[in-house]
Amino acid sequence: MEENIIKLESISKEYHGANVLKNINLNIRKNEFLTLLGPSGCGKTTTLRILGGFEEPTTGNVYFEGKVINNIPAYKRQINTVFQKYALFPHMNIFDNISFGLKIKKMPKDEIKTRVKRMLRLVDLEGYENRSVDSLSGGQQQRIAIARALVNEPKVLLLDEPLGALDLKLRKEMQIELKEMQQQLGITFIYVTHDQEEALTMSDTIIVMDKGEIQQIGTPEDIYNEPKNAFVAKFIGESNIIDGIMKEDFLVEFCEKDFKCIDKGFDKNENIDVVIRPEDIKIVDTDKGMIKGVVESQTFKGVHYEILVKENDRSWIIHNTLSAEVGYEIGMDIYPQDIHIMKKVRG
Fold first, then answer.
1. Helix (H, G, I), strand (E, B) or coil at 192
2. Which InterPro entries match (predicted)?
3. Most CB within 10 Å of its CB: which of 16, 125, 126, 189?
């Protein structure tokens, strides 16, 4: 059984009478890469700040290795933070930036030197000790900010959208490097982002948040393939979401037809949402299609075409490596395992 390092118990946070976090309960395991994912204003950064000791919860408790740490200040926690704005000291060289926290702790000079060199090797900037901050690229500055946080040997590293200022190519490279770094160090990373691809690429566990509440917790595969509600389905990649009726276990009706599926446990004739990912729809001849529609448009996306199809009063998005001619009728085929059933959200 994997051991938890952090537990959030009934955490709520109010600002000027507005609830920004609502009864958050969460267990975070040792040595995992956990991502808080959601749109702006969903509460993910507030959650991170409460973990780091920069905010206190209005109600609830934060446990670290089984002990409540609500009143322990940030600098006394075994948790360090890397922010999107790296906050490096421009008047200090790289060595002094990384070693700043160790000097505050009055650590012996030899130990400081050993730790800084080890961190520079880890972030692939060995030999940069005497360079100025201004001489570094954005990606290099980000590595130094991470090295400065890790040199204190925290048990948990918090990262608040640290790749947001980087260009797309560098961001993708750093996603891989961060995951490798976390695995090499064997410490817990808690990462905040609104970027679905980042979350899916790096995480062991994803927490999807919206309006101060947790919508779903799961592996990247679970979150993508089995969204719990329409918000998760729409936020994590593109989805076709269609009204349907669950006739019985393994049988669903939508588009005025019955389809076999692999879901069960719903009430008979329960109104549900059907989620089908664009890449799971197969284009076939009209006489072989389970559903028929007319191609309205297509856009080349590099690795696939995004095809918009009109079927009665419904619009479908299809991702396919082959193009489809605008104005032509096509057939659409969907396998049972690619039909995902979700309960409708009330309210």
1. strand
2. AAA+_ATPase, ABC_SmlMolc_Importer, ABC_transporter-like_ATP-bd, ABC_transporter-like_CS, Mo/tungstate-bd_C_term_dom, P-loop_NTPase, PotA-like, PotA_ATP-bd
3. 189
Query: What's the one-letter identity of residue 288?
Result: K
Look up tokens 């592996």; give the residue.
219
Q: How far is CA 45 from CA 165, 186, 196, 204, 208, in A?
A: 17, 23, 16, 19, 13
- Short-list 26, 41, 29, 37, CA closest to 224: 37
Assign 3-state DSSP to the chain and report helix, strand, coil percentages, each to 5.
30, 35, 35
What per-residue confidence (pLDDT) applies to 172?
A: 86
Closest residue by Cα to residue 132 from 174, 165, 97, 100: 97
The residues of the chain scoring below 70 in pLDDT are 1-2, 84-86, 346-347
What confidence score (pLDDT) does residue 4 get?
94
What pLDDT score does 1 carry?
Answer: 42
Q: What's 227-243 look like in SS3? A: CCCHHHHHHCCCCEEEE
Q: Looking at 107-264, which runs of residues are DSSP E strands?
A: 156-160, 188-193, 205-210, 213-218, 240-248, 251-254, 257-260
User: Which domains can be identified in the chain, with CATH numbers?
Assistant: 4-230 (3.40.50.300), 238-343 (2.40.50.140)
Phi-psi region of 301 (alpha: psi -120 to 50; beta: other; left: phi over 0): alpha
The residues, ordered by sequence, that sit 6+ positions from 185 with a Cβ below 8 Å of its Cβ are 122, 150
User: Which pair of tokens denotes residue 45?
Assistant: 């950064």
pLDDT for res 347: 44
pTM of the model: 0.86
